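Pilot study result, target chain (333 residues):
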Amino acid sequence: MSIGSRTSRTLLAGLIVAAVVFPLSAAATPAVPAPNPVAFSDGTAAGIRYTANQGNLAEAARMAQDAGRGGRAAKLRAMAAPSGGARFLSFDGRGKGRVVEVFGDVETADRVAVLVPGSDTTLDTYQRFRAGAVALQQRLQAEHPRSAVVAWLGYETPGTVSTTVLTTGRADEGATELGRFLHELRGFTRPAARISLLCHSYGSVVCARTTTGPEVTDTVLYGSPGTGVGSVSELPTTARVWVGRGSDDWVAHVPHVRLGSMGFGTDPVDPAFGALAFEAGDAGHSDYLRPGTESLDGLARIVVGSADTTPVVTAAAASDVLVRPNSSEVSHA
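Predicted structure:
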């Protein structure tokens, strides 16, 4: 390899790191004692899980308080007592934590959205993830009352300021867990329920590596740095694949390259990627689920099934190329 080539690769790697890590960072999570998660046998009803996990969460809050971790204890208590009561399909208070929370009635809903978060989502930052889930559920209810939202924090997210956020390692682990959960979720929902995956930021890398069955009708990648593949046709899903990016999202400046195991390659909003586009307005990286936004409306319409599937080219990837749904093929206007 020539010196010039090595220099170029080093500069590109530096650009990736700088573009990804500068926007925000969460504090490192200290070791906090917590009980082991409750184990459930296959087929355990959702209501039984909610009750058992609520008790486990309360015990985790008590243990954190006794250990002098008042901040974590307060956050756990807030999780346990939202308006209307909490519904946790799973809860693990150890370390950074893992949580699967339901908003609405997943057992009667015929539209179910599963939110998959990106970097720095932990028990200590969970409230911002939950706020997005609540906003989406309220927006869905206004248009389609038989809907539910699942906030799925089922993997160890990478830190925004870390080397892990530049690779697919955590995403591979998360994809295994997400695939297992989607199979389990089918046991709680109505047979004909439509399930949509809504995948934010690094969560889009997780979703892009998750094998899904026909129950998943739509996969949405928003605020995505890339997926690690070149086109929709390479994704292990038969779902329609959507992509959106707000005009104020810093992730647009992430270099779309792949150097060995670093980086995620093709920009998903590029028409050549082959995804359907939804309008995300002026959303910033953390604003897609903010109430009253164009991006929230667009995501809700996809979940409900009322979104326009006419090929769209976004301003972020202006071109005369029209993209066909779930295909890497293109045609020119």
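One observation from the pilot: The CA atoms of residues 75 and 124 lie 7 Å apart. A full batch analysis is planned for the follow-on phase.
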